[in-house]
Specification:
cytoplasm, coiled coil, DEUP1 protein
Length: 169
């Protein structure tokens, strides 16, 4: 995209240089036109023949036509230059908008990532706490199971003694 902007700027500079050349040519033609006018005035005094005046007037008219054509060309080039400038401006605005959207998205994703990191840390703390509680409960149940097995064993021993005593009685 930067290359496009650079290319457009170069083209804009080229159009600007062309514009300046045309203006310089217009100034030169205008100076030449003024010289021609002076020459015409001098010739009008010196030349008495109408045909030579008509030729000079035709030349002057041709120069005026050339000046008008150059002015029209200059106007057309000015319009093209303005179009290019507007296009570059729109492209730059679009690029800035895209950059802002990207920055906003990155900021949003960063915030989301931060929230997820906090959530993960909270879950890890809870998991650690639950793991400790589970270990304590397993230890307590192991102790209770051991006590129950011991009580079952004693019960069987007592029951067996009772049966033995009943048989003896």
């Amino acid at each position: 995209m930067e290359a496009d902007f650079s290319e457009m700027r170069n083209e804009l500079q080229s159009w600007d240089a062309l514009w300046r050349r045309i203006q310089l040519e217009c100034q030169q033609l205008h100076a030449e036109f003024l010289k021609i006018r002076e020459y015409e005035d001098m010739q009008a005094i010196q030349i008495k023949h109408q045909s030579s005046c008509v030729q000079f007037a035709e030349q002057l008219e041709n120069k005026n036509t050339e000046l008008l054509l150059l002015a029209q060309s200059q106007e057309h080039q000015r319009e093209e230059l303005n179009k290019i400038r507007n296009h570059i401006y729109r492209e730059e605005q679009s690029h800035r908008s895209e950059q802002e959207r990207t920055k906003t998205q990155i900021s949003g994703l960063t915030e989301e990532l931060h929230q997820k990191e906090i959530t993960i840390a909270t879950i890890m703390e809870k998991a650690s706490l639950l793991e400790r509680q589970l270990k304590m409960e397993v230890a307590i149940k192991d102790k209770l199971l051991a006590k129950q097995q011991l009580l079952d064993f004693r019960y069987k021993v007592i029951k067996s003694e009772n049966m033995h005593l009943k048989e003896m009685v």
